[in-house]
Amino acid sequence: MPSIHERIREDLLSCEQDLWTAITSANPAPAVKKLCLPEANLIFPQMPILTVEGNPSLNDGLQPPFHRFDSYRLNQVRVIVVNLTAGIVTYQIEAARGGQAYNATSSSTWSQGADGEWRMACHQETI
C-alpha cells in the first residue's frame, strides 16, 4: 500500500493534469474556476494577475483561444508535500500550437479542503 505522501503526490499530479486539460480546452475559464479556491491567483506571462472574481477575473483573462495548444507535456515534474493538506507541483511545460512552441517554467500550489477536494491556491508560469 502506498504511503500517505505517495497518495498525495499522485493526487497532486492528477490535479495538475486536470488543470492543463482545462487550460488548453476551447473554453478554459469554467473548468479552471472549478479547480480554484475562491481567493486563487493565476499568474501568466505578460498578463495581469487573474483572480476568480476580481478585476481582471478568470473569465476575463481566459477567453478563448487562451493557451489553446495542440499538445503539451510536463517535464522535470517535482511534487513537494508541504503537509497532509497542502502541496506544490513544479515543472517545465512544453506545448505547441501549429508550428509555434511554448516553453515555460510553472508551479501550482494546492490546498485540500475539509471536503477532501484539492483546490488550487496559485498557479504561475514564467517564460
Automatic annotation (TrEMBL):
Residues 12-120 form the DUF4440 domain. InterPro entries: DUF4440, NTF2-like_dom_sf. Pfam families: DUF4440. It comes from the Eukaryota. This is DUF4440 domain-containing protein. It comes from Polytolypa hystricis (strain UAMH7299).
